[in-house]
What does this fold into?
Amino acid sequence: MKDYYNLSDMLFLPSYNELFPMTILEAMSSGLPILIRDLELYTAILDGFYNKGGTIEEFTSTIQRLKSEPSFYEEAKEKAAKGAANYSEERLWGIWKDFYHEISRK
It folds into this structure.
């Protein structure tokens, strides 16, 4: 998958329904800007790490901005990098380790 992501300029996923979005996390780890449909699930777990849209016009507008505005593109990449860090193995390991230590003391 890494090779495919490296060929891309962004991840566009207009899906209407997803489970936990591993494709999005993989793309974030590749440093790609993310454009996805404005779904409640994404807001709950990925808010602030992606660009969103709900209509063809919104998607088109965002894609055009990513293409024509280097600062907007870089900002989108930074958001994705923050998302990748939020779900990094190291961070999640720390959360789970703390959780298990806490419950083992009870």
Observations:
- Residues 70-86 form the longest helix (17 residues).
- The domain at 2-104 is CATH 3.40.50.2000 (Rossmann fold).
- The radius of gyration is 16 Å.
